[in-house]
């Protein structure tokens, strides 16, 4: 049994597999790594293409589309490797990317999850939206990254090339100890897709393990392959799941205040969508809140399983209001917001 399973979740991603899988195989196949595809019941020719072109790749076929969270949970149950690297299909890898992460995890047993630096495929000078150089979270539960705040992606000048303990790393390329993944019952399937990796990383920090971004490992990500930002479903999932994060993982004294603040900010966002002639996105935010309140009590049960830590004790927590800093003070880069060298 090899130490690492590099696991790609696929759903109708034949076009991505044809474009990126060959390089992933070339950069990744070695004595410690096996590549595995979990297929979420694709209706295109994905499985046939993999079987014919890469017969050495193990394929786990699921009976329906379980989403990002459910697909990985079911597929990873069948694997016994020491580490899992979860990798999107729209990724262009670089030489030695996985070895760098492996060496880091082998050296420091306190690390539960680590990830590489993510840059854009279409403009390789810029950080990529979904993870950049490590994920952080502000006092109101808004996620952002070293290299990306809201829709502003910085040019990579090497300014964030230091290894850092962070709050979360992107599910587009996430390495986790398999024992830890199974101990926490994997991803929360109620998220379906979007921000479930932040929830997992938050739970991991709450039990005392570290989340690390190692920029010496570098990959390129296309992003938006399944749902792009023009799709109202993406808006719904992002707003609802962000509320799920808060309800599940924040301590009570902070959680209730943050939900009140978020109602104000998210109502303003819905109004902005209306002004932009995007009523479906505005409605998606309203639906997100209704869906959240219906399920809030169920989400809260998680706190009985893993007691939330005070936010100030978590790596990557930034006790600042990035809405105020980004939109009103026009501080739109990570270094401007943090005002410290990272």
Q: Strand-and-helix sequence, N→C?
A: EHEHEHEEHEEEEEEEHHEHHHHEHH
Mean pLDDT: 94
CATH superfamily of one domain: Spore Coat Polysaccharide Biosynthesis Protein SpsA, Chain A
Radius of gyration: 19 Å
| Global outline | globular
Q: Approximately what portion of the residues adopt beta-strand conformation?
A: 15-25%
- Based on DSSP secondary structure assignment, what is the total number of beta strands? 14
Q: What is the name of the CATH class of one domain?
A: Alpha Beta
Distance between the first and last residues' Cα: 38 Å
Give the CATH topology of one domain: Spore Coat Polysaccharide Biosynthesis Protein SpsA, Chain A
Percent of residues in helices comes to 40-55%
Give the number of helices: 12
Class from helix and strand fractions? alpha/beta
The major pleated sheet works out as:
9 strands, mixed
Under the CATH scheme, which architecture of one domain would be assigned? Alpha-Beta Complex
Protein model, in words:
This protein has a domain at 4-221: Spore Coat Polysaccharide Biosynthesis Protein SpsA, Chain A (Alpha-Beta Complex), CATH 3.90.550.10. The strands form three sheets. Strands 1, 2, 3, 4, 5, 6, 11, 12 and 13 form a nine-stranded mixed β-sheet that branches. It is globular and about 55 Å long. By secondary structure, the protein is α/β, with parallel strands linked by helices. The longest helix has 24 residues, at 252-275. The two termini are 38 Å apart. The chain has helices at residues 14-28, 46-53, 67-76, 97-107, 178-183, 196-206, 232-249, 252-275, 279-300, 302-305, 322-328, 334-338, and strands spanning 4-10, 33-39, 58-61, 83-87, 91-92, 111-120, 135-138, 143-145, 148-149, 152-153, 164-165, 173-177, 210-221, 317-318. A hairpin with a 4-residue loop joins strand 7 (135-138) and strand 8 (143-145).
